[in-house]
Specification:
By secondary structure, the chain is of the alpha+beta class. It is built from six helices and 18 strands. 23% of the residues are buried. 37% of the residues lie in helices and 23% in strands. The strands form five sheets. It has a six-stranded mixed β-sheet. Strands 2-9-6-7 form a four-stranded antiparallel β-sheet, covered by helices on one side. It has a four-stranded mixed β-sheet with strand order 3-5-4-8, with no helix packed on it.
Length: 347
């Protein structure tokens, strides 16, 4: 088995950033520090390319871009890879290498071409490289298929909501009222630091997935709206705790409006709610912007149809996400096993 520095196996290059006027509504994907950040009419990479985020909080993340894409200066491109190394093997090797450890800079983390170029790469035979690639690709393909299923459910949900809520708003006989007339809205009371890694109860914060808490302050069926950073709408029924920037929205009279229907409507309205966000670096939603939201109050049978659909989609997504989480753990376990085994063979 051979070993070489990354700089001896490829060309490391950073391209120019694009001016704002170069971004378009559609076209070739543009990659920045956080994946695809927009589209443009030009590309600087015809083939899929390994790119390492070189600036910001995501510094050290390793991705493979789509073909015909533009990669900005916020990522270091790996080009002209030596024929002793399979590109996909190099991608997996770098993902296992914890590049976050070679960052520098206090105010803004960054990875330089020099630091990245000094990363040592173990080079087994091409047949073993292909074996590693074959195994890891199969697991990734399953994970990607799960993501496609999640995306398809999102599209189905959006289409269903658009059809039903458009019809409700277009109806001249439909009663439409401000949310504050039919719902109680309060904020969580806990600090983000109060969450724990373990606990009997969910702790809803600005994170995409709930954290945990050893105690609870709420026991109800409600809709949770994250008020800043990663705006999202969640349905929950049971005991939980919540961060200060999470709005807890309960139906004042469930015979007038059911919580699943309220959940569906707020999911549908989230893009409009986000447009009301204020603030500089960190956008947030004021309580007044939520209370003024106008919501149609259809017959209980209609609410049941919409609410049941929303909960069914939620159940399906949770089931798929749980499977995805297990497969992701498997992927990272195999990733570590392969490359730890290589390192042990070199000792």
């Amino acid at each position: 088995m051979q070993q070489a520095l990354l700089r001896d196996l490829c060309t490391l290059r950073q391209w120019h950033n694009l001016p704002k006027q170069a971004f378009t509504a559609e076209g070739y994907p543009v990659y920045g520090a956080n994946g695809i950040i927009g589209f443009t009419r030009q590309f600087n990479h015809e083939k899929p390319t390994i790119a390492i985020t070189s600036r910001g909080d995501s510094c050290g993340n390793v991705i493979i871009t789509k073909p015909f894409s533009y990669i900005t200066a916020n990522a270091i491109c790996i080009e002209n890879i030596h024929n002793a190394v399979l590109p996909q093997y190099l991608y997996y090797y770098l993902k296992s290498a914890n590049l976050h450890g070679i960052t520098s800079g206090a105010a803004q983390p960054q990875i330089t071409q020099k630091n990245l170029g000094n990363v040592p790469i173990l080079i087994p035979s091409l047949s073993y490289q292909q074996h590693v690639v074959n195994v890891l690709q199969k697991v990734e393909q399953v994970i990607n298929l799960r993501q496609q299923q999640l995306d398809a459910l999102d599209l189905m949900r959006q289409s269903f909501y658009h059809q039903h809520f458009s019809a409700l708003f277009d109806s001249e006989k439909q009663q439409i009222v401000p949310l504050e007339q039919i719902a109680d809205i309060q904020c969580g009371k806990r600090n983000a630091g109060d969450a724990t890694a373990e606990g009997a109860y969910p702790f809803f914060s600005c994170a995409k997935s709930p954290l945990r808490s050893h105690t609870y302050q709420y026991d109800c069926e409600c809709v949770l709206l994250t008020g800043n950073i990663d705006f999202q709408v969640t349905y929950f029924d049971g005991k939980f705790d919540a961060y200060q920037r999470v709005y807890i929205i309960e139906s004042r009279d469930k015979t007038a409006i059911t919580v699943p229907y309220l959940y569906a409507f707020l999911q549908h309205s989230l893009p409009q709610i986000q447009q009301q966000a204020v603030g500089g670096t960190i956008k947030y939603i004021r309580r007044s912007a939520i209370t003024r939201i106008c919501i149609p109050l259809p017959a209980p049978s209609t609410q049941q149809i919409i609410g049941n659909f929303a909960l069914r989609i939620l159940q399906l997504k949770n089931k798929i996400q749980q499977a995805t989480n297990k497969e992701t753990v498997l992927f990272h376990s195999l990733l570590a096993q392969f490359f730890q085994s290589l390192q042990q063979r070199c000792i």
